[in-house]
Amino acid sequence: MNKFVVVDLETTGNNSRGQDRIIQIAAFVLENGEVIEQFSSFINPLIEIPTFISELTGIHKDMVSHAPQFEQIAEELYPIFEDAYFVAHNVHFDLTFLQKEFERVGLPKIHPLSIDTVELTRILYPTLSSYKLSDLAKVFQIEHENPHQADSDAEVTAELLTILLNKLESLPYASLKILENLSKSFKSDITYYISDLIHKKSESTIKEENIEEFRRVAIKKSNFSLPQEEEDFVEFKEYLEHDLNQRMEVEMPTFHKREEQISYMQDVFEAFQSKKILLSEASTGVGKTFGYLIPSAFFSKQFGKQVVISTSTISLQKQITKKHLPTVETLLPFQLKVASIQSKKNYLCLQKFEYVIDEFDDNYDSILSKAMICVWLTETESGELDELSLPSGGIHLWERVCCNDESENKRSNPWFHKCFYQRAKNQLMLADLIITNHAYLLSTLKNKEHLLNSVKTIVIDEAHSLEETSSKTFGTTFSCLKYYQYLSRLSTSDGNELVHRLYKLDELNENRVKWWKKIDHFIKEIKYESDELFRLLRDFILSKQNEFDKDNIRQSITLNGNNTSSQNWKVIIECANRLVQTNNSLFKECGQYFKLTSDLKANSFQKAMINEFKMIIDQLYLMKNGLQEILFDQNEQFIRWMDTESKGSFHTTMLYSEKVNNADLINKFLIKERDSIIFTSATMSLKNTFTYMKSTLGLPEENVIEKIYPVPLDFQQGMKVYIPTDLKGIKDISLEEYAFQTANAISKIANKIKGRTLVLFTAFDLLKQTYDHLVDSTISIQATVLAQGFSQGGKQRLIKQFLQTKQTILLGTNTFWEGIDLPNEELDCLIIVRLPFTNPEKPMFIAKSNLIKKAGENSFSNLALPLAVFKFRQGYGRLIRNEKDQGSLFVLDNRIINANYGEEFLKLIPGNKIKINTIDELLNDF
Fold first, then answer.
1. What does each C-alpha distance from 640 to 475, 477, 558, 634, 867 come to in angstroms?
2. What is the DSSP letter of 837?
3. d(C-alpha 391, C-alpha 372), whole Å
4. Within 10 A of 546 (CB to CB), how many other CB atoms are there?
5. pLDDT digits (tens, 9 = 90+) for 192-223
6. Strand partners, 9
7. Cβ contacts of residue 211 below 8 Å, gap of 6+?
8. Which candidate among 340, 465, 648, 778 keeps its CA 20 to 30 Å from the CA of 232?
């Protein structure tokens, strides 16, 4: 069947079973990729069109009042669907609605095969950030004149379908075979269509040039080539004086010469040469990233030494490799070999993926994710998770198919020589620059893995976040949910999971059957004891909450002498001891099993199951040790705490143990073994000194150069700062009232700005309540509102959605304070709701404060204030990213003008740019 009817409906609401009716319908009939018929009509619903529907679609009462009723067009429309695929973007809605309408007017219910273009696009284009029809139209350059009107949407969907079918046809035979098997569980009835494609492929002799098929899986061939060295090498000093500016003017249309950047580059290169540590604060506008990448490239080439570039997050790591380095390479007079690496859990293990393809699966998100990965393998060169846009449930599948230590076992892994993680490691050996993130760098150095330990020259970008990352990397975290998920994946011999499948392999072996029954017993005991422990831990946390904290989404408690001397805590410890002992019994039995199966002659499917079993047991062993460390070890150098969701299940409980001061570990693993390190960030100094940073990073007094590169003089000309005086402080009113006041202020500002507004919060609870008020009809706001944690997608997806329309408000916390680059008039206004002081109730903050107090120093001026100032600078640095940017900054916290410490924040902003007045007066003068 090669006939497709592409349909789009506009309706008065989403309830096809109730009173809602169709107000517009469009259908495009396609055969062999050509539109052979089309139908489009407004429809009189005989009921009122809700205001929000009219605002969304642009369809009003007067447009449908003289249109036909559905009964009048049903007979003409009905035959179109005979012997055709019914296609729509979110097909369930359109098909269900139309079926009900046909039934309502007395026609038989239609039962066509259907195709959902949302689902199909997710499968065939698994790396896109959004699957909304309007966004896809932009990606595929399809003209979309009237979004949310049926005729325009149906036409775009028809063009999209053609693109999708062409992509499907282009897939290699092995990929189509996998999709054929998985498609039985798709929403789309695409199985027969794929089967026809497979039949055609089987008769074709054409081979895919860039694809190889191995063990029934198609993957993109690795493109590996050695760089060709240039014969003539330009010295860095000569390049800086004569070539750089000229090349930048050619390659970068927005280039503006900055003396501060030239000085910064010289200092970085000289620090490398003289084997020094450079503490360099390069303020927004200096051009920090190019400022260290270019001298790093020259140093590596000139002296034949690798340079590691480490930044705070995987997102920023990708920003360097995908955005900055391609430009840098055009500026260099030589070829540069760059490698990027992150934790192995972020890479796909092909052996594990081969195993899960054929297993029974009834979870839709898991099946969809397998299909997406199958197509992605024909395109990816890195195999890294962050390329994919997996559904939320797909993350559980990824945890099963990502690389681990067993993936690196050459003997048991037939995919070893095609392994993505091995490929990334191999590329390190030939690289001039290695790009990574702080967590991976520190864990690698701590474990003394040779990968990065041999590199003696390192750049630490976003150095202000290194200490916090080290706390997490060198500390221990225990997730009750993750523990529960591992146990669920094991299940028991009478379940459907891993233990059941392994038991089936051994059911003819009487001794093995007895052994598996013993394993059953231990798993059931562990499940019972762990559930009991997690329930006790959650109850213990919630029993300690006070009235002030009752509205917080997560409740936390520090494990110290005051809290761990009660009878309730003794009960928890007894329960934890029983869990540990039962775990130890399970591990002992499993150790014997792994010895027996180490030389087992089994097929790859059986080996993969055994490997997965071993991986889960290893993880449970590590988690058991972590739980013991957190609950039983009492080391004064560490802070231990727990938190849980106040309205969630007991599986939401998390336990932590982190070292309070990591300066000695940073010094031991990172600093002592290096020749030269560049610590750089836009925020490192306080009162023009690096005292705080030197202390937290454990830097020696000798061999350290300290440099501050100021903001270029013309850089902040486009920024204006507004501080309202008539907003009440959070201590003066309730949190609910404060959230309403904040929402009201945001709506006033956004309605005046009529552009993109980023709103930065310091607490998720306040963000949530403010978001609720903004989307509530009581506040009039003329913009789309996006919010971290409530709008679909992670940070990068939210930013892309934010940039797609002009009048948009994005509410964010924590990660949105830094690492966002929105130049060229993409951000019109930044609102800082509260000065970014760390929550004084946070266990780690309390522990650090106590440490400072014990040393006889002031914890506010030596900890709270420096952290807040650093974060404030990071926050307002989002607004002006180059000398041509224009933007407004609103600070809604009047402590900046009323508190003694407010001047520490005000001095960061040019005084002539600040306006102080009531919010209405500020906006009147806007």
1. 10, 10, 6, 9, 22
2. P
3. 10
4. 8
5. 999 999 998 887 777 778 899 999 999 999 87
6. 25
7. 172, 218, 219, 220, 221, 378
8. 340
C-alpha span between 811 and 512 (Å, rounded): 57
Using the CB atoms, write b or e for 299-333: b if 16+ within 10 Å.
bbbbeeebbbbbbbbbbbbbbbbeebbeebeebbe
**687 vs 915 pLDDT, higher one:** 915
What is the pLDDT at residue 747?
Answer: 92
Q: What is the mean pLDDT of residues 701-706?
A: 90
Confidence tier at 909 by pLDDT (50, 70, 90): confident
The token duo for 149 is: 């009107």
Parallel, antiparallel, or unpaired for β 676-681 and 719-724?
Answer: unpaired
For residue 667, what pLDDT is reported?
93
Please list, in sequence order, all residues whose beta carbon lies within 8 angstroms of the beta carbon of residue 121, skipping any fewer than 6 positions away.
Answer: 128, 131, 136, 160, 164
Distance CA 916, CA 727 (A): 12
Residues whose CB falls within 8 Å of the CB of residue 894, separated by 6 or more in sequence, listed in order: 723, 724, 725, 727, 729
Q: Please report the pLDDT score of residue 704 as a whole number.
A: 93
Tokens of 742: 């904040």
Dihedral sign for Cα atoms in the order 654, 655, 660, 665: negative
Could you give the CA distance from residue 860 to residue 854 in angstroms, rounded to a whole number? 13
Q: Are strands 757-761 and 784-787 parallel, antiparallel or unpaired?
A: unpaired
Neighbours of 253 (CB within 10 A): 6
Mean pLDDT over 849-865 rounds to: 90
Burial profile 408-429: b = 16 or more Cβ within 10 angstroms, e = fewer? eeeebbebeebbbbbbbbebbe
Task: List, in order, residues 6 or more apart from 152 with CB less than 8 Å away.
Answer: 144, 145, 146
Cross-strand partners of 220: 211
CA 621 → CA 340, 764, 925, distances in Å? 31, 34, 64
Distance of CA 66 to the CA centre of its chain: 49
Binned at pLDDT 50, 70 and 90, residue 300 comes out as: very high
How many Å apart are CA 386 and CA 341, to the nearest integer?
12
- CA 478, 479, 485: angle at the middle one, nearest 5? 130
- For the sheet containing 829-832, what is the strand order? 784-787, 808-813, 757-761, 829-832, 887-891, 719-724, 914-917
Determine the pLDDT at residue 882.
Answer: 58
The rounded percent of the chain whose pLDDT value lies above 70 is: 94
- Partners of residue 651 on adjacent β-strands: none
Tokens linked to 863: 């900890």
Beta strands in 103-236 (DSSP E): 114-116, 211-214, 217-220
Side chain identity, residue 419: C
pLDDT band with cut points at 50, 70 and 90 for residue 548: very low
Taking residues 819-842, report their average pLDDT.
82
Contact 697, 673 (CB under 8 A): no
| C-alpha radius of gyration, the chain, whole number | 30
Pairing type for strands 654-659 and 638-645 reads: antiparallel
Q: Give the three-state DSSP class for 639.
A: strand
Give me the mean pLDDT over the 567-592 stretch.
Answer: 94
Give the closest residue to 394 by CA, choosing from 424, 344, 358, 353.
Answer: 353
Nearest CA-CA partner of 417 in 351, 347, 346 = 351
pLDDT for the residue numbered 716: 60
Give the 3-state secondary structure of residue 618. helix
Alpha-carbon separation of residue 220 from 129, 167, 208, 209, 377 (angstroms) = 22, 15, 10, 9, 6
Question: Longest Cα pair distance anywhere in the chain, in angstroms?
Answer: 89
